[in-house]
Q: What sequence folds into this?
């Protein structure tokens, strides 16, 4: 595949910004691990089980995609996009399971802050996808392009939002 | 099987599920799950709960 110089430079800049942010957090966050997420024993079990479901969902979808690729004569989706969606699907299963079994949010975590951050990430991703739609970069020669990754990310966070909402409604009826 | 003995002991100490959970360092949902019989706690957590509500392991977790 031929990538333009701007594309490569953009990738390098993105990577460097990531490294700078990581260094910033390493330098300025507390060293006594007091800001690390804490989970109780039941939550750790739930997270382990959720990971198992997410992992096997990923493996099954991956295998299914491989079979479909072998059988299909026409390609409708870019390979990297398809793989990314499969990863997102696995993550969605893991997160959905953990939220539903009350194992996603840590004991020392502010749910509202996390949900606001998730909403902002979703909006950010939908905005980027919207720009790609306007520039006509979503479908080329009948094949869905990698720019749909932002749509996938946005949808994942909407899904998380909906599961949290459903769980809140379900828990409301619970009595002590 | 519901753990009504834990629920009664907690109520006797006038603790809410959240208060007891904070005292033993777990989530409210974990205390709720133990009371409903949906989760079997580790011996370490059982002991922590017993100490908080002033009961023995037998009194709270032994099934006749």
A:
């Amino acid at each position: 595949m031929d990538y333009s110089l701007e594309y490569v430079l953009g990738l390098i800049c993105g990577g460097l910004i990531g490294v700078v942010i990581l260094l910033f957090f390493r330098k300025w966050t507390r060293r006594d691990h007091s800001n690390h997420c804490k989970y109780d024993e039941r939550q750790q079990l739930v997270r382990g089980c959720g990971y198992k479901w997410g992992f096997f969902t990923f493996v099954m979808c991956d295998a299914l995609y491989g079979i479909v690729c072998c059988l299909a004569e026409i390609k409708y989706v870019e390979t990297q996009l398809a793989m990314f969606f499969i990863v997102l699907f696995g993550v969605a299963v893991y997160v959905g399971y953990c939220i539903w079994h009350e194992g996603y949010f840590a004991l020392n975590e502010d749910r509202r802050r996390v949900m606001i951050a998730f909403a902002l990430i979703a909006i950010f991703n939908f905005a980027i996808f919207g720009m790609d739609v306007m520039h006509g970069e979503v479908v080329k020669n009948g094949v869905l392009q990698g720019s749909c990754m932002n749509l996938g990310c946005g949808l994942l966070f909407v899904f998380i939002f909906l599961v949290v909402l459903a769980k809140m409604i379900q828990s409301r009826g619970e009595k002590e | 099987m519901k753990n009504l003995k834990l629920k009664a002991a907690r109520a006797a100490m006038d603790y809410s599920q959240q208060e007891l959970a904070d005292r033993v360092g777990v989530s409210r949902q974990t205390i709720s799950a133990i009371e409903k019989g949906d989760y079997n706690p580790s011996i370490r957590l059982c002991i922590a709960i017993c100490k908080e509500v002033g009961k023995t392991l037998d009194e709270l977790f032994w099934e006749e």
